[in-house]
Amino acid sequence: MAWVEVSSDEYLKLSAAEKNEIIFSNCMEDTTAADWIPALEMVGLFLESMCPTIRAQGDELPYEDTLTHHGTRRKYIHTVGTVAQVEWQNLGGHPFTGLFQGASQGIVRLSLANQPDPAALNTAPGIGLKFLRDGMDSANLVAMYGVDGQESWNFFKNDFTNHIPAGGPALIPVSLKFAEATMYIQEVALSDWANYDEAGTPVDSPVFPYMLRFHPTGEIQFSDTYVRPHTEDLVTIPNGSTLYEVYAMDQPEELGGTESHIADLVMTSDMITSLWGDQHLFFRHQDMMDDLDIHPEWKEFTDSFGLEHETGCPVKKMMEMRGL
Asked: CA within 20 to 30 Å of 186's CA: 101, 141, 171, 283, which one?
């Protein structure tokens, strides 16, 4: 395969448009979907570090060595999905800065968190979203309806958000694993989106929302019951479709927060399955603590998991000790 690396310092120096073209060319190289990871191999999730999820550089999953795996980090969750290029069409009328003001060089991946049973209704859909910036790393987020899923095969049945409800008892082992990196396992932060625009220009006084909600327009609908694999539904979405209306909550409701429709997420390419997208494309999860450090008044209204503790990410600890 002629895949091009997308994580080096040299790669990050490229323009947003150049990086977007490389990523989507990688995705187009083989448009077959990956296989689901066998259940017996899912133990690998508990042997890998969670640190790269929130700190790894670039747009490709990093290399790692564990007791069970040597090579590119595996996607044990959200293993199989589809990929498209997108733009963030800013609607204005809000104070949010940086990429929230509009961006054209985006990549979205639509996937299910785990392998569904065609005989059952439950699926756990979610998205990974990144926007490329000139000369620097991308801004990323992930959003879902909830880790326990929904009782429907319609990917666009429910709204997604970057603040999701807690999972049920069956997911406590996974929650404990994620909590090694951050106690804010139900959220991803948004401040990085506000710090720079698509040209890589820093914002003097960044402003970012507390939470985003991705609302389906109702124009894209699939059957509630199983008809075919989710990827076969998703690849029928035509180029130019508005995938989601994006609503932003400026601060927690308890502090008087209000929500407004700030943008539309619109496809600028075909939606495709992709082996590289399933096995290599990386969406960084920004630690919610980054936002709470800036807005400590939000902390008491933000769900956390377990007892309060320092991040388990050694890279972040080292950076904090050095004052970086």
From this structure: 101
What is the CB neighbour count within 10 angstroms for residue 224? 13
Quick one: 300 exposed, middle or buried, by C-beta within 10 A (0-12, 13-18, 19+)? exposed
pTM: 0.93
Going by C-alpha positions, the residue among 73, 55, 54, 60 that lies closest to residue 22 is: 60
Cβ of 245: how many Cβ atoms within 10 Å?
Answer: 18
44: helix, coil or strand?
helix
DSSP 196-210: B-TT-PBPSS----S
Report pLDDT digits (tens) over 45-54: 887 887 888 9
The residue among 271, 307, 217, 282 whose CA lies nearest residue 62 is 282
Given a contact cutoff of 8 angstroms between Cβ atoms, the answer to whether 316 and 55 are in contact is yes
Q: In the chain, helix, strand, coil percent, each to 5?
A: 25, 25, 50
Phi, psi dihedrals of residue 250, rounded to the nearest 5°: -75, -30
The residue type of 311 is T
